[in-house]
Write a sequence for this structure.
């Protein structure tokens, strides 16, 4: 990741892997990088604001000011580095649109073959060092496809849950699941139970090391990131695996 950050600082261009020739969609091979741009040139597009968005802070790998960014007109880009490459350009586009929509970034810049240019001469760059699990990305994508891109006026059902319901969902997820899934489950429970009750539910299921759950809960915010729908997605995933291996 440091090599990637160095390339960005040296104004080099990053893209997907594609066949020799033009960067047309039919030449797409794979990519492990998803990007979101904020270009409205207000404080909302500044490095400081974007870095503090929970989904960016906990899942993005690198954040930097783009070449056209100015002090009085900031523009910022976040790169999300996936654990495994995406070989399907349509899935890549769906993930890119999901991140842009969830984070209120530029929704028109989601071409799988797009080029990510490095920083400007006086560019800023922050290496967060996160690698996003593909399961977490898929959970966020399903949230957005099912609810985030649709009007939710007068409909709050999917954002709420009872304690017994959450406990039942957690029981379907292995307590020793990969860390990115454990993290997603913590954030999902926090979205409906952001207090000691939520901590108790997670610790009853998979406590981590002493005090880890409580410390994680202090970093979550309800206005951005994963919702309880991700818990449903993870539970469905492991239910399907269980049926397939019976």
């Amino acid at each position: 990741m440091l090599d990637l950050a160095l390339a960005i600082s040296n104004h080099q261009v990053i893209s997907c892997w594609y066949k020799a020739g033009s960067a047309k969609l039919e030449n797409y091979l794979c990519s492990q990088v998803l990007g979101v741009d904020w270009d409205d040139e207000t404080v909302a597009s500044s490095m400081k604001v974007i870095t503090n968005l929970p989904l960016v802070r906990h899942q993005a790998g690198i954040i930097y000011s783009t070449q056209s960014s100015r002090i009085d007109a900031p523009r910022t880009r976040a790169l999300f580095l996936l654990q495994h490459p995406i070989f399907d350009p349509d899935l890549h586009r769906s993930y890119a649109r999901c991140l842009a929509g969830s984070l209120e970034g530029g929704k028109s810049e989601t071409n799988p073959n797009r080029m990510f240019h490095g920083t400007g001469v006086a560019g800023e760059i922050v290496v967060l060092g996160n690698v996003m699990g593909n399961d977490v990305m898929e959970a966020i994508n399903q949230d957005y496809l099912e609810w985030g891109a649709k009007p939710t006026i007068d409909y709050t059902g999917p954002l709420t849950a009872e304690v017994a319901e959450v406990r039942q969902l957690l029981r379907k997820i292995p307590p020793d699941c990969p860390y990115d899934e454990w993290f997603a489950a913590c954030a999902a429970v926090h979205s409906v139970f952001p207090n000691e009750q939520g901590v108790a539910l997670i610790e009853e299921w998979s406590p981590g090391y002493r005090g880890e759950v409580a410390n994680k809960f202090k970093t979550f915010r309800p206005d951005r990131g994963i919702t309880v729908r991700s818990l449903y997605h993870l539970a469905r995933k492991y239910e399907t695996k269980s049926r397939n291996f019976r």
Notes: Confidence is low (pLDDT under 50) at residues 150-158, 242-246. Strands lie at 17-18, 28-38, 62-65, 76-86, 125-127. The two ends are 40 Å apart (CA to CA).
